[in-house]
Amino acid sequence: MLRLDRAVLFVFRAAPWISLAALVLSLISGLLPLAGLYLIKLIVDGLTLVVQSGDSGDFYPVFYLVVLAGLVAIAQHLLASLSAYLASSQGMKVSDYVLDVLHKKSVELDLSFYENPKYYNTLYRAQQEGPYRPGKIVSGLTNVFQNFFSLLAIGGLLLFLHWGFALILVLAVLPSLFVRFMFSGILYKWYQKKTPLEREAGYLSWLLTGYPNAREIRLFNLGGWFSGLFSEIRSKLRIEELGIQKKQHLCEGLAAALSAAAVFTAMGYAVYQAGTGKMTIGDMVMFYQAFQRGMTHLKGFFEGLAGLYEDNLFISYFYDFLDLQTEIKDVDNPSEFPDSLKSGIIFDNVSFAYPGSEEKVLKNISFEIKKGEICAVLGENGAGKSTIARLLSRLYDPVEGKIEIDSVNLKCYKITEFRKKTAVMLQDFAKYHFTVNENIRLGNIDIDRADQYLIRAAAMKAGAHDFVNRLPRGYDTVLGKMFHDGMEISQGEWQKVALARVFAKEAPIVILDEPASSMDVESEYLIFQKMKTLLKGKTGIIISHRFATVKSADKIIVLKKGEVAESGTHDSLMEKKGLYCSWYTKQMQVHTQGDTHD
Ligand code: ADP
């Protein structure tokens, strides 16, 4: 299926004026060589007449023709330079535009895509092909039209001289065209096959050169092993590609030999015609040039077509990415999210399996968090705590059952509104390599950049203010070592900054997944001591292993293998003497024993 129109639309959207100018210019450039060709015929024939008549006075009109031919040639060169400039400026604009489209699409996609290797293959191919294929298609189309117009005229000229010349011209370029089509298909299929391996090589290269794993790679002496794996993949890919290229070059060589034989056959015939006086010398020169140019244009025309065929195949990789459908999106006529809650949050018989998996990690979960209540979620590793946080923040939707906020299904709220009014801190929070100020402001990008008060207030709530003040440039210190003058901080300090991001947002709902797990005992104690005050009036959940926090929650949910094992307040659960009571007692024993050993 041809999808060229979509590419053309892309290019014209990215650079409308430049594309229009390039189009007009290429049409003019297509016609100029014909004028040049005709002028040369006039010059040669005029010159022959002058030589035959022996009257040097007749020379001047020929001279003017030479000047005109020169001017046409100069115009051709100037237009070619202008075209080249327009082409590169169009290329850059289109490439930036396509990257912008790619980025917007990536952010719009559901998280589930990011958990599927197929997505990364699609993304990789779209990133490789997207930025330059649309521009290439447009220049391919203009080239094809340009060559087509030139061909019409030259073909007519050759037909006029002898129909056989036109036929030989076509036959001469057909083999190359066939080879090109054939190898486009082969390369397209190979490209699809090689993507996972190429991505794997990219991953190994990132491991070897990136910062995140640099320490461990040294400590475990993994450098040689990883670079060996990398070389193995690259050499496999290289051997496969060279195999295809070998066949391609061989076929191209044979096709070129066939076309050379055709050209010289035609030339031999023209020499014979001129020698026997059936052609003028001017005709012969014009034939020679016309045949040469005819070859160039026909080759250009067919190669353009073959190129378009190839571009059309490869651009489908870009469209595959753009056509990915998100599941988590606004319903028609979404509800407005309230500024403050009226009743609260309800999990109603919620079950969930991660996309692509049959196994339910949450099974028939039901509980209610009333307005102004903070619910602690407790459970062993893998019990499904973080999954509850992800469902409540609508990174995924339940497979069965529903989550309601103020008696409205979460799916019915406008997503951007809901996100604005929900402050979430996930366990694997982001570390932005920007200044501390920016890191905190990203929690609420509506905060004015100059509003230091809100930023500092958020940092104080998260216990980050003191350590930030000790940094060389305070709140203007760039975090991380990726950029100039960046400063690395500890994991616990990063966590404080991430928590400050949550407090920078004035949101009625909070979702905190292990918000202090990396902090030192003192910081964690201080945070949890004031947590009740900090979260006053807010509704939400907090996931924590610290019983000091859990104990003070309005409600506690104990999860076991994706199901609610028990729920209630600290006192009621202690009375029940179930799982919660046994964990609490064990943690207390550890603390007491720890204290006695000290
Ligand atoms: P917890 O927070 O209680 O330690 P999680 O909610 O993170 O547990 O995980 C619950 C289960 O879901 C685990 O068994 C884990 O293997 C699975 N799981 C977690 N994240 C994903 C994911 N992105 N894709 C598929 N399965 C996942």
User: Can you identify the CATH superfamily of the largest domain?
Assistant: ABC transporter type 1, transmembrane domain
Instruction: List the helices and strands in order.
Output: HHHHHHHHHEEEHEEHEHHHHEHEHEEHH
Extended strand count: 10
Strand order of the largest sheet: 6-7-8-3-9-10
CA gyration radius, whole angstroms: 36 Å
Pfam families: ABC_membrane, ABC_tran
GO cellular component, one term: plasma membrane
Main location: membrane
Organism: Desulfobotulus alkaliphilus
Describe the protein's architecture and organization.
- It contains 19 helices and ten strands.
- By secondary structure, it is an alpha/beta fold.
- It has two domains: 3-323, ABC transporter transmembrane region fold, CATH 1.20.1560.10; 372-595, Rossmann fold.
- The protein has a six-stranded mixed β-sheet with strand order 6-7-8-3-9-10, sandwiched between helices. A four-stranded antiparallel β-sheet has the order 2-1-4-5, covered by helices on one side.
- β1 and β2 form a beta hairpin.
- The radius of gyration is 36 Å and the shape is elongated.
- Bound molecules: adenosine-5'-diphosphate.
Fill in the keyword field for this structure:
598 residues, alpha/beta, ABC transporter transmembrane region fold, Rossmann fold, 2 domains, six-stranded mixed β-sheet, four-stranded antiparallel β-sheet, 64% helix, binds adenosine-5'-diphosphate, ABC-type oligopeptide transporter activity, P-loop_NTPase
